[in-house]
# Entry
Amino acid sequence: MKILVRQVKIADPDSPHNGQIVDILIDGEQISKIASHLDVIADEEIQSTDLTVSPGWIDIFSHFCDPGFEYKETLETGAAAASAGGYTQVFVLPNTQPVVDSKSQVEYISRQSNSSIPVRIHPLGAITKGIEGKDLAEMYDMKNSGAIAFSDGLHPVQSPGLFVKALQYIKAFNGVLIQVPVDKSIGAGGLMNECVVSTQLGLPGIPSLAEEIMIKRDIDLVRYTQSRLHFTGISTQKSLALITAAKGEGLDISCSVTPYHLFFCEDDLMSYDTNLKVNPPLRSRADMLALREGVVNGEVDCIATHHLPQDWDHKTCEFEYAKNGMTGLETAFAVVNHLLPQLSNDRLVKLFSLNARNIFNLPATNIREGAIAELSLFTKKGITRLQKQTIKSKSFNTPFLEKELTGKVIGIINQGKIIIN
# Structure
């Protein structure tokens, strides 16, 4: 199939056409021609006002709940949500039933991801067996079967002795661990950030220390092992400072933030909105603004959606009993673009695509003739308004319903297929 994208601005700092407005002809899975104007006939033609194209976006931390929790999300509905959000590749969490802690489970995810929706689903292998934090899982076997990286996902490894062994183990194949920085022994039972607001609402708090002490610990372990680690979901100004300092001394450490930690803070919980119950929790306004600055100045490497679907029963209840998390794939770009319109196209594509490719050893894809066509199409001036009847995810636990956000995903082109929103 031939696809022609007309008068599109290229956002790719590694492309010879970066910043240019051109026509792009895609033949099958390959970019066959790029020129200021192409007089050709194609099977599909795309043209839109203020259209921009970048290398395909990658989300490194999403829960597709399959197998075991398909009532919340499936690999197919998760892929549909990802494509609607402009993503061509997604890393999925191992917190399933059974847990993705063996080569057979990794192979299941890889096989099932070959659906009609052109989104590549990469399984994250568990660091520990059963995600119990007691014994290391067979990471080498999982790597050979297709695991992109390793994480215990929603239950980060608490034992420093076990985590240092994991860091040493992955050096044999240049692997990467992903850790949500939460020390569960500090603020155990907490429901939101420990602050004046938590006192006013009568909710037990989780202090920033629970995150920052874990980051300090894991930085020390990386320094000892000289291994590779990615922190995701960082939520405080001090966490970002600690990671930036570690990078400055040459440690192979990177980090990502969620769109919701950029958009919301502890003050937004005054209405007890269970969609804002997340882990790590929403922090202070000062922390939120510091994270935004980190996204702009390059201290933050990636945007990670932490797409965590929950069914109606687990969100429509008292705040105390609600489960953590919100869906995020379909609104991630619009949230970031809405909050930070000053971000250049080059910075956006690094946050959503290029940095993740470098960190996790994924093949580079550039917008040039002869390259594989893995593309995300968007406009920074369009409007996104998420509505319940149009959500692609199986779950609706999002605080962004009916919110008007500046920035819109037009679609994706990948694996010779095109999905237009």
Notes: The domain at 2-52+369-420 is CATH 2.30.40.10 (Urease, subunit C; domain 1). The radius of gyration is 21 Å. The longest helix spans residues 209-225. The chain has a mean pLDDT of 97.
